[in-house]
Structure formats: C-alpha cells, structure tokens
Amino acid sequence: MRQEDEARCIREITEETEKMILSQYASHSADSRGRKVPEEPCDMRTVYQRDRDRILHCKAFRRMMHKTQVFLRPEGDHYRTRLTHTLEVSQIARSISRALRLNEDLTEAIALGHDIGHTPFGHAGERVLNRKMEHGFAHAAQSIRVLDVLEKDGEGLNLTWEVLDGIANHSMSRMPSTLEGQVVRLSDKMAYIHHDIDDAIRGHVIAEEDLPAGCCDILGHTVKGRLNHMIRDVITSSMGQDSISMTPQVENAMLSLRQYLFENVYINSAAKQEEGNAERMVDNLIDYYRAHPEALPEEYQKRMRELGDSLDTAICDYVSGMSDNYAVRCFQGIYIPKAWDVY
C-alpha cells in the first residue's frame, strides 16, 4: 500500500472507531453538517480535529494570554487569564465528554474557541463596547466573527457548523445543538466559579469561611472538592441521556455560588476598583478612532473600503481584539504626552 493511502486510512479508521465506541448521542465526525466552503478531507485528521488545530494556532487564541479573566493586571503570576480559563474549560469539558463517550475533539474545539472574541479588561471592556456600539456587543457573537470572518487575513478559518454552533451558544441563556456544546456550556460555568473563588482567596478578597455555608455543604468545603463534585454530578446525571444536565440541588448550589461571586468579587471587591479606569480607557479609544478613522490599521480600513464594513464595525473588531497591554500602549500613545528634548 502506498504511503498516501496509509495516511488516508488514519482518518477513516478514526471515523470508524468513533462509530463503534462513542455514545449514540455523540456527534460523529463523519456525520458533520460540514463547512460553509467545502474542503477536501484531511488524510490524517477528522473535521473536528482540524477545527481544534486551526483555533489553537490562530493569532486570536494567542492574544488571550494577555486578556483579563477577572482581576485586572494583578501582582502575581498565578492568577487566571482568559487563556488559562479557556484551557481549564477545555480540560473539564474533555473529562466529562470522555466519561459520557462523546466526541472529545469536537468538545475541545468548542472549548478552545468559546471566549476568543472577548475584549481587553474582561467584562469591563465588554460593557463599554455593548454600550457604545449601535447594535451592542456580545463576546460569543464576536468569537464567531473572529473565527469565521477576521482570522487568516480576512478569510476566516472555515470551521464546521457544529463547532460554530457550540461557540455561539455557550452562554447560560442559550442551548447548543450538540451534547458536546452543552458540555462546554456547563464546563464554562463550573470552571470560572471554581477558579474565580481560588483567585479571590489567593488575593485575600474573600476567605473560604466567607462562602455560603449551604452551598458548601452540598458541593464541598475545598476549591478542588467543589469542582470534583460538580463534574461527577454532571456525568452521573447525563449518563445515557440525550441532554447534559445537573441535579437540581447541585445546580442551585452552583448558581448560588455564582451569585455570591457577583456580589462580593465581580462587583464590590477592592480588586475590581480599577475597572472604572479600564472602562474609561476603552471608551476613549473608541471615541478617538471614531474621530480619526485614518488611525486604524490598514487591514481594517481595507475592509471598510472593499467589503463595506462600517466604521463602528472596524473599531469594534480592532478594539475588542486588543490585549490588555496593547490597549494600554495605544491609549498612552494617543493621550499621554511624550517627553521631548530641545537639544
């Protein structure tokens, strides 16, 4: 057999193996609804493996390293960023998918891409863009735009329908069409509740004993124990089912912890006091580029000239894609006086 034929067999064998070992409710790679632009199959990888790799290697994925998760520019190396949050979501979601015999490759692709459209400075940046843009702003929708339109020099990554559906519908108010997408939807919530408590305790914003006792009696009295309990509950509740769920008791406890975080960490904590400055920075950047569209990078000006993007669309794409550090540098370059020497 020729080497080319041997390589082609790898994907086919993987697809055949999926049919044998995955749950009847799993999304099989061979049954994908496909891509907007049809492509020749890869010799080695299934469609979802290719999507995972495309997301992993794209520029927007790397920028998440320098985007805020919750705490703005903290002093310390161990606080989560948008990238480490994404990796933790991926790990949790893959563990659940493996236990339920779902498609791990699809799960991982959705998890890696779910927050790729997030703004600098976390939800502070998102709030400003949502307020300033005529049609609002939501990071899930921007994630789809980044992956489907902006990446690869404006060609987009041409991802499969299932991956885009999972990313678009990962928020609490929406339900993905695939079980793999539903796994990511819940894993996202479990991940940020788990690691935001961990980061808040590390930063002395809250203490373990401050957490609502009733929630901890149900979920556990350690950061690790609570996450483990939630994961186990999802697996046992969803085993052999055509949807992904938690028991009402555990889900209510999880949502109560989430509410506690909103009241004591996300909104009122000392660690969040700099958010006002971050919001003003993003607000001023938007106003500047509205007044000076010629200052936008050429790639965004080209989209306005040749593809009809509005100025606000170009500004939204540019500003939302900034890392925290890049946004600060842009602001300083525009608004902070520069030193000069007469000699």
Task: Considering the chains and any ligands shown, give keywords for the structure.
mainly alpha, Hypothetical protein af1432, 343 residues, 62% helix
The first-level CATH class is given as: Mainly Alpha
Number of helices: 16
Average of the residue pLDDT scores: 93
Report how far apart the termini are.
76 Å
| The CATH fourth-level homologous superfamily | Hypothetical protein af1432
Rg, rounded, reads 22 Å
Shape: flat
Uncertain segments: none
Q: What is the H/E order? A: HHHHHHHHHHHHHHHH
Helix content percent band = 55-70%
What is the strand content? Answer: under 5%
Q: Which fold name fills CATH's third level, the topology?
A: Hypothetical protein af1432
Largest sheet: number of strands, sense, barrel closure = none
- The structural class is mainly alpha
Overall domain count: 1
**Total strand count, please?**
0
